Write the structure tokens for this entry.
Amino acid sequence: MTILENWQKWTSFLGQNVARAESSGMPSKMIQQAAVQIGEYLATNVDPKNEQERVLSDLWGVASEEEKQALANCVIKLVDNKPVQ
């Protein structure tokens, strides 16, 4: 099973990497820009593996650039508040 097939593993993975970026002093604006780039990559190259990813993919597909930044920020907040498993 790949990391993208399980929502909990995916959000845990993202949360760990956001925490690493924050602890290394990466500015939050840079983290947000990276999240948008990852979102663009996933939307273009990866088929959603579960319902949650499908919803994010569908939202990403209709979002403006400003809305994509807001979605990326929401995902960062979601995984930043999630306990590491």
Summary: Helices lie at 7-23, 28-45, 51-62, 65-80.
